[in-house]
Every structure is written in structure tokens, then in C-alpha cells.
Amino acid sequence: MNSKSWNVARSCAIAAVVCAALFATTAAGALAQAEAAPKPACDRACLEGIASKYLDAMVAHDSSKAPLAADVKYSQDNVPLKIGQALWATATKRGKYVHYFADPEQGDVGLIGVLYEGDVPGIFILRLKVVNGQITEAEQFMAHDPHGAALYEKMGAPEPLWLEPVPIDQRETRAALDQAAYMYYEGLALNDGKGVYAFTPDCRRIEDAVPTTNQPAPTNYGHADNDVGDFTTMNCTDQYKLGFLGFTTGCRHRRFLVTDVERGAVLANAYLDFDGTITNVKLTDGRNWKVPPYFMTPRTNQSNEAYRIEKGSIRLIEMTMYEIPFNMEPAF
């Protein structure tokens, strides 16, 4: 991150009013950019069509069906591979659920969807770089979570708000949207409940298609126990203010795979590290929470998340997470 971006992040952490001022400035900048920018050669429909062809080709195990560049770079789950390997050999059909993200100006398109291997569904995340109508980069992730994938299939489509364009005069710049996503991760790493957390009052989050905020009754959360069962009844802000996520010792390689300015959305990912050294968390409400044994050994979780951002604050979060080797590095 350059010094200019870091200064913006520090300013947002000083007071929420600064974030509001930043939004006003970036919204004006986005409007000026939208009015001046020429129409991209491959618009949203074009990019989504290319992503759809990629999925169809992968399920057919036939690379000729996708507009792949001769020197395309391809990876799955952070491992550089050759087209024909991994899901290109094992995928059997597409699921119903697909949530696209597109950045025509940058030639980026991504998605969260469901893909089957045999009869078993999984949660699939994809990023493509498109140059002159050809795919030059294909980066994909597969969360082998049949239960979450089945819930996505039951949903059938993203919540409609995700797909609503932000009015042109309210759109933020790509840099401002990325900054909001960066600050989400900043609040997560060594979460102590003392930050300024930019969520809307009605912010809501799903993880592997399971609602994990604003629930009517306490529910178990991940590897946590009933001692913090009320975590899922809270809103996004109160969850961060509780300091419950303080056992996250690192949040590395915060990357913004696709920044969808038109819809105010960012498809991002990062590596969440748990080094095993934090065994107890003092919550801000006075409770002492013993960290589960799962986090007593070094682990890294791959976090793939999407955010819908409005006026500088996050309103919707769509997340999937799964374990990868500790201290893993990205392929791109």
C-alpha cells in the first residue's frame, strides 16, 4: 500500500466524519470520471459472457470453448497450474447460483457461484483478466463445502440489492471502494473493539450462504462455543466492537480481485492467520473467552469476500472461508 492510501486509512480511523468527507470527495471524483470515460471495448455483458464461456468450457473439459490467450496464466487455490488440471479435469456441472462482479475499465470480471464435482457441489470463486477479448489470467478458488453450496443453490440468486446500480452522482472511485474493503480487514486483524468500523446500521453478512448477523436467537458460530452464541444476534458494528475476533493474528495480502464501481461492490480476498499464541480473548463486555482448540495450532484461512459499499460504509457482505497451509502465498 502506498503512503497516500495509508494516510487515507489513518484518517478514516480518526473519526467517522472524516470518512463522510472522503465519500463526498470521491463521489464527485467518480462522477467526473464516469462522464469523461470512453465506453470500454468489453462492457459488463461482454465480461459476464466471457466468464460464462469459461465455466462452460471447464465443465466440458474443452479449453477450445473459452477465449483463452495462448499464454494464459492459471491457478487454483493459490497453486499455479496448466489449463486442463484441477477443476478443468473434475468439474461436472454448473450450479444455479452465480453472482458476477465486473470492472469494464480494467477488464476484470469475477464471480461467486456453485460448481459440481460429480454430484457434490462446492462454492467456486473466480477472477478473470480480459484483454482484447481474451482471457490472460484465470485465478480460481474452490471451497469444498457441500452444505454451504446447497444453501446457495436454495437461494438461487444473489440478494437483489447486490445487483442494483449505484446512482452515478453517488458512485465512489475504485480507490475509495478498495479503501473501504481494506479497512474491513484492518478492523479484523487483532480486533480489539476500539476502532471506527464503517458499517451501515442495517449491514448484514452471510458466510457460506449462512446468515451470521442480526439473527433472532443465539447460534453457534464457526469453531466458537455457546459462550459467545449471542455473536450472531449482533449487527456488523457491534460484532466488531465486541473484540471477539482478536485471535486473528494477521491479515495478509489483502487483494481486490474485482472492483465493481457501477454496483459499489468489491470482490476481495486475504489470508487470515491464526498463529496459535492467543489462547484467551478479553471481550469488551467483560467476558473472558477461551479460544477453541482449533486455533491453538498455526493455521491460515483463505478469505474470499464481497462487499456492497454505500457512502463509504459496508452494507452487505458475502463471504466464504476455508483452511489452506499456514503462511500460504498467493499465485498472483
Describe the structure.
This protein is an alpha+beta fold and 332 residues long. The protein has two domains: 3-33 and 162-324, Nuclear Transport Factor 2, Chain: A; 44-157, Nuclear Transport Factor 2, Chain: A (Roll). 27% of the residues lie in helices and 36% in strands. It contains eight helices and 14 strands. The protein has helices spanning 3-14, 16-36, 44-60, 87-90, 146-155, 160-163, 174-188, 236-242, and strands spanning 68-76, 79-81, 91-103, 108-117, 120-131, 134-143, 199-207, 210-211, 250-260, 265-274, 280-282, 288-290, 299-310, 313-324. The strands form three sheets. The chain has a six-stranded mixed sheet, with helices on both faces. Strands 8-7-14-13-10-9 form a six-stranded mixed sheet, with helices on one face. Strand 11 and strand 12 (288-290) form a beta hairpin. Helix 1 packs across helix 7. It starts with a helix and ends in an 8-residue tail after the last strand. Mean pLDDT is 90; it is low at 1-22.
Radius of gyration: 20 Å
What is the H/E order?
HHHEEHEEEEHHHEEHEEEEEE
The whole-number mean of residue pLDDT values reads: 90
Q: Tell me about the biggest sheet?
A: 6 strands, mixed
Instruction: State the CATH topology of the largest domain.
Output: Nuclear Transport Factor 2, Chain: A
Strand arrangement within the widest β-sheet reads 2-1-6-5-4-3
Q: What is the helix tally? A: 8
Number of strands: 14
Question: What is the CATH architecture assignment of the largest domain?
Answer: Roll
